[in-house]
Design a protein that fits this description.
mainly alpha
C-alpha cells in the first residue's frame, strides 16, 4: 500500500472513530496523553518523538494491521480499506502523517477505554500537566499494561 494511502486511511479512521466531542483537541496533547499511558506502564514515551513521515508511515502500516485484526475496529477499517481515500499527491509531509497516526491510535484506544483529559494551566517552562481518567470495562492495571504494550509494539519493527 502506498504511503499516502496508509496515511489517508488512518486519517479517515481517526475522524470516524474519535468522538465528535473529543477528549483531546490537538495533536500535541494527544501525543502527551499516549506517552503518559506508556509511561504509566513502564514503557518509554514514543509519540512525542515521532517526527518523520517515513517513521509515521511505518508505524501506520503496523497500526492498520492491528486495526484489521482487532474485533472492535475490524469492520470500520475494512470499510475504509475497501474504498481507500484517493489523493494524487506523492507525499503528505511529516506533520500530517504524524497527526494521522496519533489520531488513529487515539481512536483505537477509545474503542477500549473512555478517556477524559484534564489540562492544567501551562507552567513557565511551557509544558502542560496532563491528567486523564480511564473508564469502561473496569480498566484494570493489566488492561492498561496490555494496551500500553500493544501501542508500544507499533514502534517495534521486529515484532510486526
Amino acid at each position: 500500500m502506498e504511503p499516502i494511502t496508509v496515511i489517508r486511511a488512518l486519517q479517515e479512521f481517526g475522524e470516524e472513530t474519535v468522538p465528535k466531542d473529543p477528549a483531546v483537541e490537538d495533536v500535541g496533547t494527544a501525543a502527551a496523553v499516549l506517552d503518559k499511558l506508556l509511561a504509566m506502564t513502564g514503557v518509554q514515551p514514543l509519540f512525542s518523538s515521532l517526527r518523520s513521515e517515513r517513521e509515521a508511515v511505518d508505524v501506520g502500516r503496523r497500526l492498520l494491521k492491528l486495526l484489521v485484526e482487532d474485533k472492535d475496529t475490524r469492520e470500520k477499517i475494512s470499510e475504509v480499506l475497501a474504498d481507500p481515500p484517493i489523493d494524487n499527491r506523492l507525499a503528505v509531509g511529516e506533520i500530517v502523517a504524524v497527526a494521522a497516526v496519533i489520531g488513529a491510535v487515539l481512536g483505537w484506544l477509545q474503542t477500549k477505554v473512555d478517556l477524559k483529559v484534564h489540562r492544567k494551566i501551562e507552567r513557565p517552562s511551557g509544558t502542560d500537566d496532563i491528567e486523564f481518567e480511564i473508564h469502561k470495562q473496569a480498566a484494570s492495571n493489566s488492561l492498561l499494561t496490555d494496551l500500553s504494550r500493544t501501542v508500544a509494539s507499533l514502534f517495534d519493527t521486529k515484532q510486526r
